[in-house]
Amino acid sequence: MQTTIKGIKIHSIATALPPDIEELSELDMIFGEEEISRIIKTNGIERIRKAPEGLCASDMCVAATNLILNSESVKESNISNEIDGIVFVSQTPDYILPATSCTLQKRLGLSKNSVAIDINHGCSGYIYGLYQASMMVAAGGCRSVLMCAGDVLSCYVNPLDKNERMVFGDAGSATLITRGDGQIGFAFHTDGSGAEHLIIPSGGSRQPRSDETAQVNMRPDGGLRSDEELFINGIEVMNFALREVPKAVTQALEAVGWSKEEVTLFGLHQANKFIVDYLRKILKVPALKVPVAMKDTGNTSAASIPLMLCQERDRFVNDEMLTKSILCGFGVGFSCGVAALDLSDVNIFEPIEINF
């Protein structure tokens, strides 16, 4: 599907990282120096950020939110008092129930008249969150919506599974959407037949945890993990992205009437360097327009797009680089979401490290 939502404005984007850093080169004693070198070269990830036990995605989202709410542009206005909606996008919520967005309402001191929504999405989650928040504002129900997106997937990765351990990091983000004269063009694609290729099989109602699901076994792909830990079929995820992302980008461009050549920034989900570079070549766009920024953080799932924007903020000193931006998330689901929007007037903050 594709659509355009008008009457909105993205005010600010902020991100927060956990304090722990894992150098992938130091894993050579586990996986072998040659294998480590090969994976780092292919993925373009040299280190990942990991949340220590007890640090949740919501904690990093709160830190990112406070960075926005304490900024001069918000303090000088009445925006913080106008927030009456919160959307939390994550596949690692605080609890099975209640919704994390409800607990965030209290933690952030938002109005009790706020609407609170959780969205269970990962790699494409940031775009889904923008879509939900934009609809809430454009429909007239909310004056301003805080959209938080983040994950702590590292705690679901078996430390002896190199396919996942050397890819996934943790982060949280906050994006403030308000009323305005802007618009965002959206395009989405969903193919649930690929769900089995990026999944934590056990822990939900379909397959509850048990002694059997907790058993760690060597899998056909060479990974060592249990059914309660993350599995990714990288080849199938890549094939989905290469097949569907270009189509979705075209649909989003059609929604706002842009040509591909007009686009000033292609902000792709930071899955790994190989996939981002391959997509850039298929899209036939210059490397300068496609940031690659996962080297020091890893793939941070729902937070990867805003984290990339915050990491690369110094490159965007010329606002024209953000005037016609394409943001695209793809992966778990399988799902793909694209947003076409103007980011030139958005307050983008440098990533902060959370104290824990």
Mean pLDDT: 95
Query: Termini distance?
Result: 41 Å
The CATH superfamily turns out to be Thiolase/Chalcone synthase
Total of helices: 11
Uncertain runs: none
User: Helix content range of the residues, please?
Assistant: 25-40%
**Whole-angstrom Rg:** 19 Å
Name of the top-level CATH class: Alpha Beta
Known CATH architecture: 3-Layer(aba) Sandwich
| Sheet with most strands | 10 strands, mixed
CATH topology: Peroxisomal Thiolase, Chain A, domain 1
Strand content: 25-35%
What this model shows, in words?
This protein is of the alpha/beta class. It contains 11 helices and 16 strands. Strands 1, 4, 5, 6, 7, 12, 13, 14, 15 and 16 form a 10-stranded mixed beta sheet that branches. The protein has a two-stranded antiparallel sheet with strand order 2-3. The chain has a two-stranded antiparallel ribbon with strand order 8-11. Helix 3 (57-69) packs parallel to helix 6 and helix 9 packs across helix 10. The longest helix is centred in the C-terminal third of the chain and has 23 residues, at 234-256. It is globular. It starts with a strand and ends with a strand. The mean pLDDT is 95.
